[in-house]
Amino acid sequence: MTCQFTMAATLTLPCARTWEDVEFPIHVETVEIFSWIDPELRGNEEDEDIHYVDGEVIDLKPVLEDIFILEIPMQVFKEGSEGQVQGGKNWSYSTDEDIARQKENDEQKVDPRLANLAKYFDQTDE
């Protein structure tokens, strides 16, 4: 028997950065195959796509749980700047762009203790 399922839900998951609640919608469409073949005639473990049924009633709960669990993401992030952490004591949160901008600023600045030495080398090159 071939069955087509459509599942839709909204999960409330914790933000990976702030631990605030994030609404995460999921929508799953799947086709599952059920078979009542005798246990002696069943295929090997390669038949992962076939759900073998013992008895006359199909138990959908384990099948739907597996499908649902596979759709839950490992991490979710809250959208917008209000959910971003700016930093704390002895640590800060930076994006790649922030780090690149900081490197450019650091390269342009000369240590004031070495400013006279830089002037000396500029004079000797001339």
Quick rundown:
The protein has 126 residues and is an alpha+beta fold. The chain has helices spanning 61-71, 96-108, 115-125; strands spanning 2-14, 21-35, 50-52, 87-88, 91-92. It has two domains: 2-86, no CATH class; 94-126.
Q: What is the string of helix and strand elements?
A: EEEHEEHH
The percent range for helix content is: 25-40%
Mean of residue pLDDT?
Answer: 81
> In which order are the strands of the major sheet placed?
1-2-3
Specify the structural class.
alpha+beta
Major sheet description: 3 strands, mixed
**How many H/I helices?**
3
Poorly predicted sequence stretches spanning 5 or more consecutive residues: none
If you compute it from the alpha carbons, what radius of gyration comes out, rounded to the nearest whole angstrom? Answer: 30 Å
Total number of distinct structural domains? 2
InterPro entries: YceD (IPR003772)
Pfam family, one: YceD
Biased composition (Basic and acidic residues): 98-109
Protein name: DUF177-domain-containing protein
Descriptive account of the structure:
The protein has two domains: 2-86, no CATH class; 94-126. The protein has 126 residues and is an alpha+beta fold. A hairpin with a 6-residue loop joins strand 1 (2-14) and strand 2. The protein is built from three helices and five strands; from the N terminus they run βββαββαα. The relative contact order is 0.15. It has helices at 61-71, 96-108, 115-125; strands spanning 2-14, 21-35, 50-52, 87-88, 91-92. The longest helix is centred in the last third of the chain and has 13 residues, at 96-108. 28% of the residues lie in helices and 28% in strands. The strands form two sheets. A three-stranded mixed β-sheet has the order 1-2-3. The chain has a two-stranded antiparallel sheet with strand order 4-5. The mean pLDDT is 81. This is DUF177-domain-containing protein. Residues 98-109 have a biased composition (Basic and acidic residues). Residues 83-94 have a biased composition (Polar residues). Residues 81-109 are annotated as: Disordered.
